[in-house]
Specification:
Layout: H1 7-17, H2 25-38, H3 51-84, H4 88-91, H5 98-106, H6 110-115, H7 118-127, H8 133-145, H9 153-186, H10 193-197, H11 206-214, H12 224-231, E1 236-240, E2 243-247, H13 254-267, H14 272-283
Antiparallel strand pairs: 1-2
Helix pairs in contact: 3-9, 3-11, 5-9, 11-13
């Protein structure tokens, strides 16, 4: 049986008995033992969830980290494009998607793009599932009339090199995220899936995150307020005498808090109650 103790807890406990700041492993071990024996009611026993839920949780959190990393690399790519080749940001909706990556991989500068045969460029868009002839012709006309943002050969060469580097990273991330999606989809159906499938806004990506957020062993939490406090969606209240303040809770599992925040945002489009609650709360200021 294990009782995890937050480092800040033992640090504050140590400070109460040793104001000088003295510390050592034997002393900390004695303090941890005293915490366990005298204040066990304030500690939560480590009670791991089922193996299938923990596996699902690890995979979806890894996926989210990779998506966040893709966003970082996409922002870096965008910053370079704005310096020397900004037009693709208007021509392509998601520059980090396969269409944008393949486009920049093939034509990293406007000069190279305008030297390509029009039929080659048109075929490229069609091969990447661009079905709208109107959209293709708009792009072709924009490419034909585009004017280079800079003439600095040093910046153009460095920009093409940087674009190639970021595109390679984005392609690798896209492939890994797609592989993870397949791995998650191939997992045996979770026994709790049907319970969460009907929630408003719970799509293919958010559904497994909600399963993991609530967990299979929900006896770990005695009430909804306990889960709200643990996940960080409940604020922290500080009160002393006539002074009272309420602020954002920072000590929490950030991925879990993010799951509830994103679920709340997605539910606005699917739930009339959620929309009305949000609008009434926002109106109160």
């Amino acid at each position: 049986m294990l009782f995890p103790v937050h480092p800040a807890t033992i640090a504050s406990f140590r400070q109460a008995f040793f104001p000088s700041g003295a510390k050592g492993d034997p002393g900390d071990a004695a303090l941890l033992l005293e915490l366990l024996l005298q204040h066990r009611q304030h500690l939560r026993r480590l009670d791991p969830d089922t193996a299938e839920t923990r596996l699902l949780g690890m995979l979806i959190e890894l996926r989210r980290r990779l998506v966040d990393e893709r966003t970082r690399q996409s922002n870096r790519l965008t910053a370079w494009l704005k310096m020397y080749f900004p037009q693709p940001l208007n021509w392509i909706d998601n520059i980090d998607a396969p269409l944008g990556c393949d486009f920049l991989d093939r034509w990293p500068t406007l000069q190279q793009l305008q030297r390509a045969k029009p039929e080659t460029v048109e075929r490229f868009f069609r091969e990447h599932n661009s079905r709208s002839e109107t959209r293709i012709q708009e792009r072709m006309e924009a490419i034909r009339t585009a004017v280079a943002a800079v003439q600095d050969t040093a910046l153009l060469e460095a920009g093409a090199a940087a674009t190639g580097a970021w595109v390679a990273l984005l392609k690798a991330l896209n492939a890994t995220i797609a592989s993870l999606d397949q791995q998650i989809a191939a997992l045996p159906k979770h026994p709790e899936a049907d319970l969460f499938a009907g929630l408003p806004g719970a799509g293919p990506v958010l559904l497994p995150r909600l399963i993991v957020a609530f967990g299979t062993r929900r006896e770990r939490f005695q009430s909804a307020s306990e889960l709200a406090a643990y996940s960080g969606i409940a604020p922290v209240t500080k009160q002393s005498g006539k002074s009272k303040s309420v602020h954002f809770r920072r000590a929490c599992p950030t991925f879990l808090r993010q799951t509830f925040h994103e679920f709340a945002a997605h539910s606005l489009a699917k739930s009339l109650w959620a929309r009305q609650f949000y609008e009434s709360t926002e109106a109160k200021g």
